[in-house]
Amino acid sequence: LLVRIRSWICLVMVALTLTGCTALQSSSAKPYRPDQIMKYDASAKTAYITLVAGADSGYGGFNFDGYSVGQLSIKIPLGWKVYVSCKNNSSVFTHTCAIVQAGPITPTGGKIVFGATSPHPLTGLPYGAVANYSFTPNKLGKYRISCTVIGHEADGMWDWFYVTKSGLPSISV
Ligand SMILES: [Cu+2]
User: pTM for this structure?
Assistant: First the structure.
């Protein structure tokens, strides 16, 4: 809905000013690059992921590091330890950073897996709060990085998280 409203506002602006709306709709300028979001130590089989919830205004702020609706994909090999730093950058909404089953998008987000969630999964972190946690994925598959505060996943606040058989962690946008 937010996107639709934004597109509509954009059309009105075009009609009024005859100027383009590229900047408003562009999703190219993200606040964080992949190499800023994930780092890893291969010898320690440990990955470090920094998730900033509501990093910018993308999808009405329903994003991680500026990425929504699967624009970001992180792959972690089975058995690696993952440290997550979750920061709520929104001054409007509470948020969480969780790993959930990749079933249908639901109002409360998917079922949390690997115990991977910031505290208070339903109510979220207050503005400016940072929560650090770690987990070790023990099952191969496709999952989501989601905010489990009610309604947020459905508003686009999710990205992809894969547990791979072997190799090194990777991140793509
Ligand atoms: Cu949220």
Answer: 0.83
Instruction: Identify the three-state secondary structure at position 129.
Output: coil
Q: Read off the tokens for 92.
A: 């409007």
* Other CB atoms within 10 Å distance of the CB of residue 42: 11
- How many whole angstroms from 124 Cα to the centroid of ligand 1? 7
Residues lining ion ligand 1 (Cβ < 5 A) are: 95, 147, 149, 152
Tens-place pLDDT, residues 123-145:
999 999 999 999 999 999 999 99
Question: What kind and span of H or E run contains 12?
Answer: helix 2-17
Question: What's the DSSP call for residue 126?
Answer: P
CA atoms of 42 and 168, how far apart (whole Å):
7
Distance of CA 66 from the midpoint of ligand 1 (Å): 13
